[in-house]
User: What shape does this take?
Amino acid sequence: MTGQDDAKRVAGERAIAEYLADGLRVGLGSGTTSRWFVRTLAKPVADGLTITGVVTSQTTAEVAAEAKVPLADLNDVLELDIAIDGADEIDAAGNMIKGGGGALLWEKIVATAAKKMVALVDDSKVVEKLGKFPLPVEVIPFGWRSTERHLRRALADFGYADPKIELRMRDGDIMRTDGGHYILDAHLKQIDDAPALAARLNTIPGVVEHGLFIGIAAAVVIGHPDGSSDIRHF
Assistant: This one.
């Protein structure tokens, strides 16, 4: 395991100790840090912890099945007690970029269905300003080039004259999300006003969702390679 893997594991263990209790309905995130968290749940569940998980991706569902975490459909649960999910970047205000794994739509639905959302990261994901990580924008396949054109116009209004925007590919084919959509990754380098940009992206026809999670996280658990961790509240 790398130091970053150790940090992810430690963050997951701290989150379980701080936030989980019998009877809770828990949103289970996607991505590498979240997979560490779900795998770490295996022992507490085997030892008698009774929680019900709601997943944010098919991949998470497979990991949860291996860990023997009981799962439910969000339509049956309606409201969650807590959602615990990773982030590709998180700033001092708790604003995040998510969607590096392609599950941003389901992640945002689950996060906002919870009474509290807690981010789970290793310390390399904590940034002063969002944007070094490419911003994922999930779009309808129909007319996606037209949607990309509108996206470019919106970004130009925020000072991005000709940003690199890539259609996400996987194994030589266009990657589709679990919802059947495409993802455009916008390389912005730095986002000065994330809330304003998020609001603008929400107005573009064809955009299903974007990876700016604004005002959603209530706290973040940060793991460090030396085995320590800390929690910040927003």
